[in-house]
Design goal:
The chain is α/β, with parallel strands linked by helices. Helices cover 37% and strands 16% of the residues. It has a ten-stranded mixed β-sheet, with helices on both faces. Helix 12 packs parallel to helix 13. It is elongated, with a radius of gyration of 26 Å. Bound molecules: ligand LP7C6HRI and potassium ion. The site of potassium ion has 11 residues, from strand 7 and strand 8.
Length: 570
């Protein structure tokens, strides 16, 4: 599933209308119909729950290969009354075609359609008509004077008037949303510039305060469609019906939170157009792993395989006070399926980690009695690495004198894939401009920074990184020729060729010490099994998140998950 910026969406709109000849009114009609479908679905859910409130949808038939709708949600958003279990559910649901019969249950429903003066408002006007035809009581609320609408939106306005659908002009007529059964937010879409101005701001506040379920058209009004930043006041939707292509801001926090459950609906724009027009950002799903990354997610084993078949990982990690980080990375590399894993530790640590995981091979890589790494250990490490397929460096490494030169030697003299995490990234960041002189590697490099490590790599603040995670990650990967995994909620995987993926597996309970070390081991292990850097990074992040969800279910609560649980759940 491709993801676009507001500007890319405008280009795709224009191409569809001007080059393919599909009328804008057709797109708007389909958009409004899709919004109406989702509103009717919510009404049906409420009627099923019997108490007139939104309950979590029962198990839907999941069609793993459904092309039409990709739906995921944070349950606490959809079931306002159910015990939010904090786990994000990912499911692909086929939305059954909705027959617009006059269902008696819906005639109790009174929905308000908040309409802006752009085409987002136009979509809302089409939805108002469909919902009226389905039997709901509908009132259209114009944020601006109706005569400010232009083009297709003005055409929608005239139809509403011709049908005699009740209309309120905000600011001129009284508006009380407290009795609303639901509200459609068709105020601002991808044409928004900056925080909502009056009267949109007041109307958004009134809608949020109403307590009624909010369905946003395309994007919640007030949300930055590109970065996911909230320009308050911003609508807090329980469902966002995203049109044609997923907007980036709906997947990045805090936007993902404000959007609630996101449903991407086909409205007549050819699905392949984004790829043809050079869009390279995709949602990371099983389909994406199979189709875009050509990953064999079944991970078949050959009947006559042996340990050597599945690669040998060398993990250079762990120090006196942080030996566990190295152990977690090494264990994860083994659990994900590597044939062999050697864990290299400072010499003084070795006697203490013997037996920590009997399946691991151990090696002393830094002589000295203090249990810390030192620059002299580069020779030993390079010696060990020559007989290994992948080198993972960083978890629990610590900093030491001349560590930049040490890392540079590994970077330039080891000719296999390199995975750098934690302190290896901090050492890389401390190289500063000298990094330009480091030899460009022919073999893959995968960096796995969390936002703070990314900030140090870029020399900016963590807040700036988080303001536009996708752009920062993609820019760094492209200019440095590396594969970069920017961790955090909705991890970004950015590849040197410009391709990028946003992961939706995982949950907040994985914010626990060592979870990142586990990911490093997973990615190194997948590289050892022959996946390329993009495949190993994307598949590794995806599996890491699924394992975290599984671990939370086993522990009955996300807060109880520790990093070792994620390894066991792999
Ligand atoms: N994706 C598709 O194929 C289709 C999308 N459609 C819908 O069109 C909107 C985008 O419409 P556009 O007219 O470009 O802009 P908006 O409706 O989002 O609103 C802009 C409108 O509001 C004013 N405005 C801008 N910023 C602010 C602000 N901060 N405060 C107040 N007012 C603001 C601005 O002057 C404009 O007049 C897209 O989201 C879809 O919903 C098509 O309908 C179908 C095809
Ligand atoms: K909207």
């Amino acid at each position: 599933m491709y993801m676009v910026t507001a500007d890319e969406m405008r280009q795709l709109d224009r191409y569809t209308i001007d080059k393919l000849g599909i009328p804008a009114l057709t797109l708007m009609e389909n958009a409004g119909r899709a919004v109406a479908d989702e509103v009717l679905k919510l009404c049906a859910m409420k009627s099923r729950s019997g108490n007139g409130r939104l309950e979590e949808q029962e198990n839907q038939t999941c069609d793993a290969d459904s092309a039409e709708v990709f739906r995921w949600r944070a349950t606490e958003k959809v079931s306002r009354t159910g015990p939010g279990d904090l786990l994000s559910h990912r499911e692909v649901i086929r939305v059954e075609p909705w027959s617009h019969g006059r269902h008696a249950v819906w005639q109790r429903e009174h929905w308000y359609i908040l309409v802006g003066k752009g085409n987002n408002g136009g979509d809302g006007l089409v939805a108002a008509r469909h919902l009226t035809d389905a039997g709901l009581h509908v009132t259209v609320v114009y944020a601006d004077s109706p005569d400010t609408l232009r083009g297709e939106a003005a055409a929608g306005r005239d139809v509403i008037a011709a049908l005699g659908i009740p209309v309120i002009v905000y600011g001129r007529d009284a508006l009380d949303l407290r009795g609303a059964s639901g509200i459609v937010d068709a105020l601002l879409g991808t044409g928004t510039q900056g925080p909502p101005r009056e009267p949109y701001a007041s109307l958004i506040r009134q809608a949020n305060a109403s307590g009624a379920p909010l369905v946003s058209v395309d994007v919640p009004s007030g949300l930055d469609a590109d970065t996911g930043a909230l320009h308050e006041p911003c609508i807090r939707a329980c469902v966002t019906v995203c049109l044609a292509y997923l907007k980036r801001g709906l997947v990045q926090y805090p936007g993902a939170e404000a959007a609630g459950e996101v449903v991407v609906r086909y409205i007549g724009i050819p699905p392949g157009l984004a790829r043809e027009c050079g869009v390279q950002l995709r949602l990371l799903t099983r389909d994406t792993l199979r189709e875009a990354l050509n990953v064999d997610i079944s991970r078949r084993r050959v009947p006559d395989g042996h340990k050597g078949t599945y690669g040998h990982v060398l993990v250079a990690a762990g120090s006196l006070r942080m030996s566990g980080a190295g152990l977690l990375a090494a264990r994860a590399a083994l659990r994900i399926g590597s044939g062999l894993v050697t864990w290299a530790v400072p010499e003084a640590l070795l006697p203490h980690v013997i037996g920590a995981a009997p399946e691991l091979m151990l090696a002393a890589a830094a002589t000295g009695r203090d249990g810390e790494w030192n620059a002299d250990s580069a020779d030993e490490l390079l010696q060990l690495a020559q007989a290994r397929d992948v080198l993972a460096v960083g978890p629990g490494l610590g900093r030491f004198t001349a560590d930049t030169g040490w890392l540079r030697r590994l970077w330039e003299e080891y000719d296999g894939p390199l995975v750098l995490d934690a302190d290896a990234l901090n050492i890389l960041a401390s190289a500063g401009p000298e990094l330009e002189a480091w030899k460009r590697r022919s073999a893959a490099v995968v960096l796995t920074p969390h936002p703070g490590e990314m900030a140090r790599l870029l020399g900016i603040s963590t807040a700036e990184v988080q303001r536009d995670r996708i752009t920062h990650a993609r820019e760094y990967a492209r200019t440095r020729g590396v594969t970069l995994v920017l961790k955090g909620a909705r991890t970004v995987i950015a590849c040197p060729d410009g391709a990028a993926y946003i992961n939706t597996t995982g949950h907040a309970g994985m914010a626990t010490g060592g979870a990142g070390d586990v990911l490093t081991g997973i990615i190194a292990g997948l590289l050892a099994q022959g996946l390329n850097a993009s495949q190993a990074a994307a598949f590794g992040v995806y599996l890491h998140g699924v394992a975290g969800e599984t671990a939370a279910r086993h522990r009955q609560h996300p807060a109880a998950v520790v990093a070792g649980d994620i390894i066991e759940a792999l």
